[in-house]
Amino acid sequence: MGNQSIHMALHGYGYIGRFHVLASQLNLACAVAAPRLVWDAAVVRSLESEAAARAAESFSFVTDDLAALLQQPIDAIDITSPNALHYAPFQLALEMGWGIYCEKPISHQLEEAQEMAQRVKQAGLVHQVALMYRFHPAVIEARDWLLSGQLGRVLTFRAELLHGGYLNPNRTMSWRLQSGEAGGGAMMDLGIHLIDTLHMLLGRVDSVSAATKTFVTRRSGQSGDEAVDVDDWASATLQMTSGAVGTLEVSRVHYGRERDFIDIVCEHGVLHIPLESYRGVELHTHHSDLLAPEVSHASILQPLGAKFAQSTLLNLHATGLAVFARRLCGGTVDIPVPTFDDAVLAQQVVAAAMESGDRDGARIQVG
Q: How many CB atoms neighbour CB 128 within 10 A?
């Protein structure tokens, strides 16, 4: 399977688009047993842009016309453009029968995301969302522990994803700070990752009560001083359908000491999942008779070798893309991959949290 090649188109060559291409190159360096992704074509907003100039150094075909992809030998498309621009390349992929790899959220609007999930499922296309924490070694190990039943019932949890990119008020306006293009702020951008990971580990969220804040309310943009209309920070209490309860905090103003983790408190011990570090789960327990689950996962899910492994996020994106490539060629993996349906479920929780924040923390049912 590793000798096969998949011809890829990329929609959007900003930071995250470049990150995906780099992650696929990491798979080649690490000799990951997955089909090779060949990046043939890139679609950019403007051929006069910096993104177009950068793309021309790596892609044989660069265009600002999505329809021009019809003349290219494409097997799949990777959608990394701003959230509000995902639908058009998605529609083209449906028409052409391409595989679809899409950044989260799959749309800036929940209703559109729901439509996309329904249509891609009906079309029967291989698809996957870049909710890459599912491929974190500690998340996979934590899932093995929970499935083993040795830890008993899950009682509580705490999840944090604290970044600092927007604390500086002099940072200029970005599409990520505009609801019309992003659909939300820290809760949409970061919270969706934690929610999807919690869904994988603990099951569905039943209801949510949240607080949201925007600390830097105006920034310099193309039209001068512009309003920021998404949250910089959010905190939520999540009630799970299982009966477990926990908290989630996300921030884009936590400068200098960024941290990402999930703690899960069970009857017989606590699992610490260090999302910011590329290492396994930590189990803290007062029981001496617990045995690590003897689970052997597919080689493609094994952590990248220490000599080639890079940042945690790059490693996780590499594994996610390798899994997508394998699935395009008919292969499978032994953990649940993030689908459009999964992205919609997480976005429903995001929407409930945003509504709760607007309503002074009122408890909102999900779905």
A: 25
- Structure confidence at residue 1 as a pLDDT band (50, 70, 90): low
Report the C-alpha gap between 57 and 134 in whole angstroms.
32
The CATH classification of domain 133-286+337-365, taken from the options 2.40.50.140, 2.60.120.510, 1.10.10.10, 3.30.360.10: 3.30.360.10
Share of the chain above pLDDT 70, in %: 99
CA 17 centroid distance within chain? 13
- Identify residue 201 by its one-letter amino acid code: L
CA distance 302 to 136: 9
For the chain, the distance separating the N- and C-terminal CA atoms, rounded to the nearest angstrom, is: 39
State the pTM of this model: 0.96
Q: Which of 60, 85, 34 is nearest to 330 (CA)?
A: 34
CB under 8 A, 24+ apart: contacts of 221-229: 221/172, 221/173, 222/173, 226/173, 228/173, 228/177, 228/178, 229/177, 229/178, 229/179
If we measure between CA atoms, which residue out of 242, 245, 219 comes closest to residue 232? Answer: 219
Cα torsion through 10, 12, 16, 22, rounded to 10 = 40
As assigned by CATH, the class of the 5-131 domain is alpha beta
pLDDT in tens, 244-301: 999 999 999 998 888 899 999 999 999 999 999 999 999 999 998 999 999 999 999 9
Give the span between the Cα atoms of 301 and 320, in whole angstroms.
Answer: 9
Return mean pLDDT, the chain. 96
What are the domain boundaries of the chain? 5-131, 133-286+337-365
